[in-house]
Fold these 4 entries.
Entry 1:
Amino acid sequence: MGENDIFQLLSHEYYQFTSAEKRVADFIISNGTKAQTMSISELAEATGVAEATISRFCRRLNYNGFAAFKLAIAASSASRTGLSNPLTGEVTHEDTIPSLAHKLAVSSMDAIRETEALIRPSAVQSATDALLRADKVLCMGQGGSMLMAQEAAHLFSTSFTGYFPVTDSHMQVIYASQLCQRDAILYFSYSGTTTDLMDVLRTAKTQKATIILVTRYLNSPGAAQADIVLECGSRESPLQLGSIPARVAQLYLIDILFSEVCRRDLEGCKKRRAQVADALSEKHV
């Protein structure tokens, strides 16, 4: 094992830990693969300690935060097993293209099934109500999640006015500061823990705009600030960095939300989509 192995470090420092920190260390050592995909709230619940204890524990081990700590767990787990594999679907060097394709198809289908199981009809209904009454909906995210926000803005714009993607983190805060209670934010964040997300949500809440968050973790800091939370399935390790199954899960949620909003006004939606299709027809050869 290398000198940066997190499991070796935990064993070396174990008897210097408090009783609460030992519970965290015990869980990480026994459940490294599982721990690397957990949120700080889930780890706190699993170990019976406070989230603040885990944050202090990470800093004690000289990690900047929980995300850096999880990355170290993922890297050390890969080093121990000899499978430094950043790919989803358990794709290996020995796979053929057909077996690779099958594994990835299963991963994406599993993400959809898991998301379906997490659907809360009351949350979808509340999100639909908020979108239908909003004068303006800002679609936001960071990194790969911003791609999902742009996809949502594009899809909703084929049937409704007032949907705008905002890509720059500074502009997101600026636009959020000019919202009102008749507006809404549709934010995509797999972790629900980024500082940019929290900046936007704090600003939007002061303006009384409705906040809809699409995230993997219901107990994340972002979810605590949002008015409505829609959970997406698919777990990914820190080494996978925006896996396709995670995006498939978010796309599936977008489709559910869009379909429900349209279902409330099928005739109006049909008319507006026909207008859009007619306007775009001149863009084709």
Note: The chain has a mean pLDDT of 89.
Entry 2:
Amino acid sequence: MIDIENGHAILIDKPYTWTSFQVVKKIKYKINHLYGKKIKIGHAGTLDPLATGLLIICIGKFTKRIEEFQAQEKEYTGSFTLGATTPSFDLEHPVDQTFPIEHITEGQIMSVAKELTGKMDQIPPIFSAKWIDGKRAYKLARENNQEVELKAKEIEIKEFEITQIEMPKVYFRIVCSKGTYIRSIARDFGLMLQSGAYLSSLCRTRIGDYSLKDAIKFEDLEEYFQ
């Protein structure tokens, strides 16, 4: 049962195409209806609509711990598709350019993953939730095709494992610091292979000590709140 008095955190397995805000809105409706009063709710760490996986929902006093959760390292699994790019670096937008991949070897793929491990300055995607002059970057990018300039920020890739290669797809597991954009890693991965790449699937499997295996499936929410 949810501890409204002292606060609570719910681990959710966010479904594909849902925004993090939509998940919060649905849970907020459930809790407010159940307890008959408005209770503060938020999420720790946005997941893109086309990403799945662990989303921590903070309720009541636990909303004060959102920054604490966000600061913890994250773990992801997913895939890059080589030989093409999209404006958003993922499947939200259609392919805008294609590139050759015949020259890319397994050894080069492993080498680039190693080069992209460690601390580095990363430029976020223009279609991101970064704030610029009071607006989200993705909103500015969508408004009249406005050019958006984002500053590089230091991030750390602690582990970058290539788990499978099925050209043009490359499957990975990444452990990284707060603020890391896996879509930007896809962009850089393609460039370093003298080709192109975009993020074709992504799942967040861990935030700090919180694991996706302990999360509630979204379709089981009704049962959870009974």
Note: The chain has a mean pLDDT of 89.
Entry 3:
Amino acid sequence: MFQRVLVANRGEIAVRVIRALHELGIEAVAIYSTADRHALHVRLADRAVAVGPQQAAQSYLNIPSVIAAAATTGCDAIHPGYGFLAENPAFVAACEDNDLVFVGPGAEVMARMGDKVQAKAEITRADVPVVPGSVGAVRLEEAAALADELGFPILLKAAAGGGGKGMRIVDDHADVEGCFHTAAAEAEAAFGDSALYVEKVVRPARHVEIQVLVDSRGEVLTLGERECSIQRRHQKLIEESPSPALTPETREAMEAAAERAATAIGYRNAGTFEFLLGPDQRFYFIELNARLQVEHPVSELVTGVDLVREQLRIAAGEPLANVGRASRRGHAIEIRINAEDPARDFAPAPGLVEDIRAPLGPGVRFDTFIESGRVVPPFYDSLLGKLVVWDEDRPAAIGRALRALGELRVTGIPTTRELAIRILRSEQFASGRYSTSFLEEEPGKRLVAVAE
């Protein structure tokens, strides 16, 4: 096992990884920008290294600075968390070039899976269904022709990345050109690559993903699914496991597909295969997230598997203790608490957190980095923390989540807490009959209006 690991991130995920390192008896080295010099992850780490000014491009995304921080502190490995450099093949290659173990998949696999077009082609060869669409990147004229062939609506997606960037739904011919240019410009700004591909929109659809762990021998453990359909602008707000939409047969088929795909592409470490699920139980691969997911605690609570510890063990060359299908028990729900104002179209709301009180009690977990009297800087992601609950069944878990949200207090800045309460109290969520368009539909509009 490693002696010292650098955590190449900030916020709640840096805190999460540092705690896992300490539980394994490993020294943790933090990095920080000038905006984060007093942050919780800096104080929890055994050592901390400044890597640049407040702008992420000059600090957390600065590969030479991050590598230098690891090298000068004598680290054996780097854990990237999620976001920033977590899915950057050049960063993985830089780690390898400097004899640092990257806690995640190799650079070559990451590069292949980061190209969404190539990823779809490889997944198809593994006999995993994909959403109908273009074989590769397309020009504007080809996108318009495909729209005629597939039928509207279609989805334009960035070939070089995900997370909702460079993505537009097109409902008719009049919008194709404008949406194409907007998506291409957004993709260029986010990923340095304006290439787009086309997918048929599956509607109504649910966003369901399968968590996998793969060790150095290629042995695979699947940890069931996470339901991630409550979203705004393709960004997840609430996740749960198990999904109320899946039959046992579909669940096994999806896990088998993820296992088959992981083996075919030579994947290693933790990864998530994302699928769209139609009302007919048919599912389609959309992308592989070659990293730890924000919503990983949902899987941890229903399986009892600590995913960060397993990531570190796999990276250190240790075999998985169990393979096949992880056993599961109960129901878990995660609610993201963001520094955003739902009344202003989820505009970011940085500022001073005057007071924060985390909920307590059985089956409640609150992963955060925020403390009373600290400022949420405007330079990074708006996520303040993740409230995760577990109980024996879904109705009990919803009740526990509502109780915990009622106890949670964040004053000084707007958050998505009240909106989350209204979503969990809605008939659609309680019944389990919801889709990715939940917040776009009339009940969702009323939810946001009430939050105003």
Note: The domain at 132-200 is CATH 3.30.1490.20 (Dna Ligase; domain 1).
Entry 4:
Amino acid sequence: MRAVPLCWLAMRIIAGTYRSRTLAAPPGMSTRPTSDRLRETLFNVLAPRIQGAAFLDLYAGSGAVGLEALSRGAARVAFVERAAAALKVLDGNLARLGIGEGVSVHRKSVSAFLRSVIGPNPRQEKNEVVFLDPPYDEAEEYSIALELLGGTTQTILAPSAVVIAEHRRKSALGERYGSLRRTRLLEQGDAALSFYAVQS
């Protein structure tokens, strides 16, 4: 079967202020947007936490997950992405939706971003929700990001924060990463969502 460029796949905001608005996705097959169905599952779980929350979208790609959070009432969303093609699409999606406030885009790798907030004078605000979705085949990115998050809880995560990692169902993640402990695992098709909480 011929691969269809991802920019041809229809994505939409599922609920909230921007409900049913369409989003572009980066061209090619290297970026894998979170499906509408999986995003709906994710936000059904997160519903009690989203209103007024600070949301951190790591490996943001097109920004679909962070934009869904903003549509549903998140106070602010920070996107972290380094790929030029993805950043171009993310910028376009923000412009298409007319979003200029309550968002920030960090144009660097996730590891560089997280290391930048560990320093002695961190300026990063604390986040209530963190979502990460590295390329499935880059398994080391999961451990790097989760270990850094588990070691930066005092500077980047609110005390009651939840960290969610989307991953391949068959690729199990660890139960613990530093101060993060897995509290829930949801599986849907070939994908899975691992939920982590800060454990003191």
Note: The chain has a mean pLDDT of 87.
